[in-house]
Amino acid sequence: MLPMLNKKLMKRLLPFAILYFVLFMILPIMFYIDEGFMQLVPVILVTVNPLICYTGSMTFGVMHGFDWQAALVGPIFFLLMMFIYYNSSAASYLLIYTVVSIAGLGIGAVIKKSFRRR
Q1: pLDDT in tens, 46-100
Q2: Residue 94 is part of which domain span?
Q3: pTM for the full model?
Q4: Residue 12 lies in a domain
Q5: Does residue 71 belong to any structural domain of this protein?
Q6: What is the CA radius of gyration of the chain?
Q7: C-alpha dihedral sign at 83, 94, 17, 56
Q8: Of the candidates 66, 69, 77, 74, which has an alpha carbon nearest to the alpha carbon of residue 97?
Q9: Which of 17, 28, 99, 115 pairs with 61 at a CA distance of 20 to 30 A?
């Protein structure tokens, strides 16, 4: 276990890790079950996944403030999925998901601070 990840942080990250697990690990299984879903892969990689990363990170930021480790949960799950379901050409999406997660986390932290002041 990493010394930076304490039990309190892991407990806060668990719901978001489950969300990313379902999004990045379970959802692609549908592509192999039904060939019709294969046409949706680019749409999901470009729109749905970044939207979920942004929303999840923003929610974490509103609830718990900014924590850089939370911004890495989604991209780490995508990295694992990339080696299982895709090839290395999907690596560019890793950077996109990381930037989107950091932006969502930052905006969520700003929202939390603005509500705390009132």
Answers
A1: 888 899 999 999 999 999 989 888 888 888 888 888 888 877 888 888 899 999 9
A2: 41-118
A3: 0.83
A4: no
A5: yes
A6: 15
A7: negative
A8: 74
A9: 28
